[in-house]
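Appendix B: complex inputs.
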Amino acid sequence: MPPIPNAPRMELWLDGIQRFLAPPQEKLEATGSWDSSYVVLNSSSTRVASEPRPAGMLRVRRTPAADGASARLDVELVARGQWFGSFRMAAAIECATDALATPRSWKLSTASLDAQDRPVALTAVEESGRIEDGTVVRTGAKERRTKAPGAVTSNWSLFDAVQRLPREKTPPLDFALLEDLDLLKANQRLTWRGAATVQVGGKPLELFGYQQLGEGILPHHYWLDAAGRLLIVYGGLRCFVFNARAATLPGAGQPAGRRAGK
Amino acid sequence: MSTALSRREFLGTTAGLLAAGAFAAEPKPARPNILFINTDQQGLDTISALGCRYVHTPNMDRLVRRGTAFLQSHSADPVCCPARASWFTGRPPAENGVVLNEVPIVGTMPDLGQWLRREGYEAVYAGKWHIPGRDVRQSFLTLPGGSGQGEHADAAVSRACQGYLRNRKGARPFFLVAGFLQPHDICYWLRQHATDPGELPYPELADKLPPLPPNFEFDPREPEVIRKRRPSAASPERPRNWSPLHWRYYIWSYYRHVEMADAEVGRVLDALEDSDYADNTLVIFAADHGEGRGRHQMVTKHFLYDEAVKVPLIVAWPGRVPEGRTDDTHLVSGLDFAPTVCDYAGVKPPPKARGLSLRPLLEGQKPPWRDFLVSSSGITGRMVRTKDHKYIVYKDDPAEQLFDMARDPWETKNLAGDAAQAPTLARHRTLLADWEGALEHAPIRPRPPRPKGPKGKGA
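Resulting structure:
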C-alpha cells in the first residue's frame, strides 16, 4: 500500500477506513450538540487485514451548556479483547469551550465484560475528578492530587477540541494529556498538519488534520472532513473510524458473535 | 533423564492443585500479599531513575525510590514463552519444556499460581500469560481483559487490577499478577516501519532523537544464528535500508512504548497505595526480556547480548525492603522469581526449582551466592555470565563469543579467539557443561501449528 502524502502511516488503515467509514449526512454543528460513533480498529501488521474487523467502539456525545461556557461530553469506549473478554469505559466530562476542551470535572466508570457483555465481578471501578487551581484532583478509593504542569486536557476532550479549532490558524498547543482521565502524560503538542486525500468508495476524500506528539504516546493524527467533522483518529496500533452504526456492529458495539441489531 | 514427575509426585502436586480452590489450606497469619507487575520486552536500562535520559518513567522511578533494583538481572531466556515459563516454574526452559515460543510446558510441572493456591493464597491473574500448554484459568482466578496489543489492552489490565484491589473481600493473602504487553508493541511498529522508511515523518523530532548506541558498530565474528537475525534476513520485522536517522527514530519510538507501560504500572501502584493492602504487599516488578534498540544493530529479542537478556527487577515493600538501593553485585536470574515469591509467602519453592531466593539479599544478609548464571536462547543458544565475563555459544556453531564485561560492557570485542583468554574460555565452557549436565532435560516437543489468521499469537 503506497504512502498517502502528508498522512504518515494512514495507508495501514486504508482498508478499514474504506470498509467502515460511514459519516452521517446532516451538517455538523461543532459548537452545538453532536453524537459521533467510531469503529475501533487494531493493527499488528503492515496493514490491518484484507477484511479488517472491528476491535471495539467509541461513542462521544456533546451537549453544550445553556450559557455556552461549557459542554458535557458523554464518552463510551468498548475494547474487544482476544483473550478473555472485553472492557468498557464510560465517562461524563464537563469541559470548557476553550481550545483544548479542558476538562473541569468528570465521572468515570470502567469494568471488564464477559462474553455476553456483562460486567465481571471485582473489576468495576468508579471515579470522579476535577481540575482546580492547576491541580488534578481524582477521587476513587481515596483522593489524589497532582499538580498539573500547565494546560491539561483528556484524550476524549480532543475529539471535541479539534472540531472547533481554526485549522491552519491554530497555533501549536502545548499541554499535559490526562489519558483516560487518570494517566498524566506531559509535554504534548498539538499542531496543524494540513491536508491529505484518501480514496473512499472510489472517490477522493479530502481530509484536514492535526497531529499530536508527546511523552507516553506514539504520534497521533486527527483527520476531519471539509465540514469539520472528525472522521479518523489513529496513533500506534489503534484507529477510530467514524461509523454512525458502530453501536450495532458485531465486534464493535456488540460482541463479535452477536448479530447486529436493527 | 526425564523431567516428568513420578505418579506419586504428580498426585501430590498438579492433580491436587487443580482442585486447589476446594482444598485450600486455611490462611496463615501475617503472610504478605504479593503483587507481581511485569512488562513485555523492556530492557533493564530503560528507566529514568536508573539513568536512562531518553525516557520519562515516573512510576517505575517510584518503585526504584521505594525498593531495591537489581542491576545484574538476567532473563532466563530472552523471548516471551520461555522467560515466562521460567518465572512461574523456577525451572529453566530445558527442564520446563518451553524451549521456544509456543512449545508447550511439561504438563505435570506445577506453576506458581497452583503452588500458592494450595498454600492458601488467592492467586489472581490479569493480562499476558503466554505459557503454552497451560490454560491460565487452571492456575489462577483470571480477571478478563486482554489482547495481543498493549495499546489496545493494557488499560483493561490495569483497570481490572485496580478494581480487584478495590473490591476484593476476605482475609486470604493474594498473589496478583499484572501482565502488561507494552513495550512489546514495538514489534508491530517494526513491521510497519521495516522497509522504505522515506523521510522522517515528523521533522520536528530530528533534534529530540536519542543518539545511536556506542555498540551500533560491533565485532562481526558472531554465531550464524545472530547474524541471521540482522536486516539481510527476509523477515517482516527487521529493518532494511535504514539510515542512522531512522534507527534513532526507532529508538525514540521504543521509549514512547516504555512510557505507555509506565503509565499503566502507575495505575496499579496508585490502586495498591489507595487500598488497605499497601503496607502488607510485596511488589515485584520485572520484564520477561529486553529489546535490541539498535545495539549491535539488532532489534527485538531472541539473542543473548545484554540489550535482550538484561531486564529490570525491582522489589519493594515499605519498611521491609531497603528503599532507593541498587544491587550491582549479585547475578540474578528470572529463575529466582519463584523461589523469592515462595520464600516471602512462607512456603517451599516448587519441586526442583533452580533459582535462589532474593530475600536474604533484600534483608541485608550475606548468603552464599552464585558466581555464574546460565541463560538460554532457544534450543541451541547458551550464555554463561560470570562476574567479569560473558560466554555465548550455539550448539554446532564454532563461532563462540567471550566478552570482558568489566572492560567492554557494550560487548564490542569478541575475545574467544584471543590465545591469552584461552583459560577463561575453557573455564566458561566447563561451567556450562557442568550446568547442563545437572539439568533434567525435558523432551523437546514440536511447536503446534499456528492458528490461521492475522493474530495467531502474541509473541
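Chain A has two helices and 15 strands.
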